[in-house]
Known about the structure:
Elements: E1 2-4, E2 10-18, E3 23-25, E4 30-32, H1 36-41, E5 49-59, H2 66-80, E6 87-91, H3 97-106, E7 114-117, H4 130-141, E8 149-153, E9 156-159, E10 164-165, E11 174-175, E12 183-186, E13 189-192, E14 226-230, H5 238-245, E15 250-255, H6 263-274, E16 278-283, H7 299-304, E17 308-309, H8 315-327, H9 335-347, H10 354-357, E18 362-363, H11 364-370
Parallel strand pairs: 2-5, 2-6, 6-7, 7-8, 14-15, 15-16, 16-17
Antiparallel strand pairs: 1-5, 3-4, 8-9, 9-12, 10-11, 12-13, 13-18
Helix pairs in contact: 3-8, 8-9
Amino acid sequence: MKRTNDGGARRIVVISTGGTIASRWQGTGYAADASGSDVLATAPLPEGVTVEVVDLFNVNSSRMTAAHQLTLLRTVHETLADPGVDGIVITHGTDTLEETAFLLDLHHTDVRPVVLTGAQRPFGTGDGDGPGNMYDALQVAASVSDLGVLVVFDGRVHAARGTVKSQTLAADAFSDPSAERLGRVGFSRVDIERQPERPTPLPLPAAAHTAVPGAIGPDAVALPRVDIVTHHSDGDPFLLNAAVAAGARGIVLEATGAGNATPEIAAAVADAVNQGVLVAVSTRVPAGPLAEIYTGGGAVDLVAAGALLTGTLRAAQARIAVLATLLAEGGAGDPARGTALLRRLLEGPVRVEPALATGGSRSASAVAARA
């Protein structure tokens, strides 16, 4: 499908992947089944925008797999190989949107924007938020440049890195608990208030060319297993050891506080690292950085055991960083290189622009002029 608002328009490609924005009533609950063209037809187009739709797949995002995400990653790169494309909007379910957005951002080398959006209320409902989010996402994709992968939701623009789903049902579903929003959109204006922090992007992994969503048997591509293990009162190493026994090549320990567990878990981390497993430590706490403060199984001991702290990245995005490391050349068969690469992806550079540090804002036209 192709929709045009007026001549000389910005050419935006919408890649549809399912989610609530494409979900209709199935008799017992909602499930994604509306096409990208159906979803697009519910939203007005911003002035000066032409839209083309790619129906990539149609799943509830709780069923998203690494194979789906790698297929989307490849499709984004193939779409941007066309110099006539000005930007991409991806419609996606909200449950795992933060993971997909971060994976795309880690591999995004183009100045043209990739914008993810979705909805909290299903397709076709009278009070649905999908049409407004779609309109805003198209406006952002047609306006900004050199900001990496973005999440646009409920009038807010978020950087992929650090942004998580922070509300289960409310329209304002996404935020970065440890940082301010990137910008805002409304009244035909996009204001960008800060520059996102992004490490040097990774090349497209070979697995992106071979992963097939839903494939089983000989058609399935073996992707590295990366598990998340949560610490809690009475937590012990059992699940962490079980993950290693199941073949995990990477583990994210979702610790307590600023990155704390127990001496027994720290010992299990050391054993896992000695077996070549990449271990990253995140936290159950919604906001704030991790820090080496406590021993007795705390972050001091976990780092000494070979784990890496994830900064302000929470477990789901930390898992994506570990997966991306394992898929990259630097993570193949060389633990030292893999650890160095993962450290770079977890830390990310801090980029502060004086003009933005004073609290001023920039319009999208100012951002585009910088490219």
